[in-house]
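Quick question about two entries, pasted in order.
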Amino acid sequence: MGRVLMIGAGGVAGVVAHKCCQNPDVFEELCIASRTLSKCDELKDKLANYKTKVTTAQVDADNVPELVELIKSYKPDIVINVALPYQDLTIMDACLETKVHYLDTANYEPKDTPKFEYKWQWDYRERFEKAGITAVLGCGFDPGVTQVFAAFALKHHFDEIHTIDILDANDGNHGYPFATNFNPEINIREITANGSYYENGKFIETEPISIKREYNFPEIGMKDMYLLHHEEMESLAINIPGVKRIRFF
């Protein structure tokens, strides 16, 4: 692949940057770009022992002309978006204008409305096809790996899948009353938004964290789990034929 432009310098960006640098034969060069250049430089310093050539740049991910200028200057083979979800569309617009492939880890939501939904990005499908470039959406763990697990299970282990429950639990303890392993703002928006689940061909909306279940997980034990809306349910409802119910806790 050669050259990657990664937009974002938060916690998820740190994971992505390390993964890229652990595969220098694929990711030969990496530019880390964000609104705050010092965060990019701090992350770059942590990657000093890898073979991948790492540089940094400042960019406002809300500003399409700035993004276009950076992409044209750096000439990446792909843009990896690990910025905030409500910046997805501006980055996609810049990729369209420069005809560069795009990948993100979380789907778009409007800045003033906490609601993840695929439809805004799916509307770009025809434009990306006409431009001859690819956009891979929601390529994180959930969404991302969860859809891969479901598709693999259907292809290799089951004739049909009727129900899917996605259970996401953490066992870490930072010693704080509230701690999150990704952007705190997005985490709070996610749990305060209305929940939903898919059943018999339609989505049913629920009040925020109004449905609770307890699950006994291997290794980490019993956890309180709350039903949330999560965007991979939309993708699974379309791409897993015959599925009757999908829930995310």
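Here is the second entry:
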Amino acid sequence: MNILAIETATPICSVALLSDRDVVSHQSESGNQVHIERLAIMLKNALELATTLKIQLDALAVSIGPGSFTGLRIGLATIKALGSILKLPLIPVPTLDAMALQYFENSPTGHIPDASIGLLFSHRDLVHSATFRGGSSEPTRGEYTFGSLDQLTPADATTDLFGFENPKITQWLQSTGCQDQFTSIEPNAIAIGHLAEARRDEAMSDYGAIEPFYNTIYQAKKWQRPTFHQNPGNSGQ
């Protein structure tokens, strides 16, 4: 399956061209204005390479959050416009799912942890969180949660943490003594593309039904520390 994937949920802008899971090209840049200034150019580069190599795209893939409000809006609007021109289906991939895949594929301990918690800073002192366990092809996710870092219970010594590093998260890790359990992950479009291929059945042609995960989705949920007391299902949402 040939996929053009983008990741814009953080200050990192990433575009990847994949063919049957092999990475044909990957571009990644970071900065405050990188999504609006560079995303279209990076997509143009990838499309020109696909034409040169005679790679016919089967689908597009996009990170749909949680993450930067502006980054997600720019990414989703851009990929929807491109998809409308190319007449291709679009596969939405949750940001933390893709970050979990990156973490599990490059586990610093050399094995798949029994339980891990992914963290992604939102704004003020609020953080998105989700639990994951290893799977045969991709990590299995429990429910997303959203709340204050001050309310986040420190993980025990057996729990691995991963996420996109942010000064607020770093401060929390230091204050709770969990810094040695944390692995910093820089989200990239390669993981978005790999998960998109695994979830090809979720490809959508009705772009209007695809919306990014913004903070309001989580604000109505009561904060509680993610656990594995119940068997989490992979909703793929």
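Reply: DSSP finds six helices and eleven strands in the chain. The longest helix spans residues 34-52. Hope that helps.
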